[in-house]
Amino acid sequence: MRRKTKLIHGGIVGDPTTGAVSVPIYQVSTYKQDGVGNHKGFEYSRTGNPTRHALEELIKDLEGGKAGFAFGSGMAAITAVIMLFDSGDHVILTDDVYGGTYRVITKVLNRFGIEATFVDTSDLDNIKDAIQPNTKAVYIETPTNPLLKITDIEAAAKLAKENGLLTIVDNTFSTPYWQTPISYGADIVLHSATKYLGGHSDVVAGLVVVNSDQLAEDLHFVQNSTGGILGPQDSWLLIRGIKTLGIRMEETESNTKAIVEFLQGHSAVKKVYYPGIESHPNHDIAKKQAQGFGGMVSFDVGSEENADKLLAKLKYFTLAESLGAVESLISVPARMTHASIPKDRRDELGITDGLVRISVGLEDAEDLIEDLIQALKQ
Ligand SMILES: *Cc1c(COP(=O)(O)O)cnc(C)c1O
Q1: Which UniProt keywords apply (predicted)?
Q2: pLDDT at 345 over 90
Q3: Per the confidence metrics, is the pTM higher than 0.90?
Q4: Domain tally for the chain?
Q5: 175 and 288, same structural domain?
């Protein structure tokens, strides 16, 4: 199956009992047993629900792994994955990781003895130098949020394997339509499905795919024990969103290309961050491991004041956190998604007060560019 076909025919299709072409929403908590332990595969919906199961099978097929898991949010998915580790274990993470990931690792999971080091994983030597005797995993986000840095998944996974570490990839920005980290050696892939997979700003969800039977068993144990599952309604919405992922990602890609070209030629824009630009430090790696560069672009307009002026004038870019939706969104990472990272740390990373991040939507590119032209006028 090719990629667009798999989005529609992967996982579990329809309902064999009724012939319904879409998977029904099984709004149910418990299941009748014909004798103790004699059931049809479902006992209680925290453990397993048919609608959620259909979604879990679908994401498993899309990422090319052994098992899929659906959670109530991306953060619930990330937390469950880190709960695979023990107190005293150490994880190496990408330094400009999603703000919520930084927060849960440094303010919540630290209380349970999870140790972490944040390094620029786009340079493999940094990962090598951060490995300790108690290190258990390398956690990569690529491209990163909001500076669109790229880590070589294949090289990082090879280094991790040589040192007996798991490789975990947050694949939210690329989606399996553009990038399948398991095919480059990753052990665990996770998503905030709230973004491109859902795609319509109407559901909060997280997905995980693991690439071994042991990890599948361990993560199901955590999911069932801690209970951060996705409900059947939201599972169904995600399945629906995923069916159009291919055409949405293709259209996003062409809109983004046009916008990046425009921004690069504009005098009010100091710097454009996008892996599709040839001068991006890891453009070649992005090209090697992903079939598209995505719809996230960050650019620096020089100051907080300039950023505010831009935001006030834009008509089609909605000021909002989140990304990956049909509508174009804009945010100021320093004061929004990355506000939970201390200012001195933000400056260290390059997340300046004048940095704005756009998530390019599915409007006409001409309208989006005209909007940027009028908003960037001094
Ligand atoms: C949004 C996001 C998350 C968190 O997901 P939620 O669904 O908001 O809990 C994690 N990683 C990345 C890259 C994100 O963009």
Answers
A1: Lyase, Pyridoxal phosphate
A2: no
A3: yes
A4: 2
A5: no
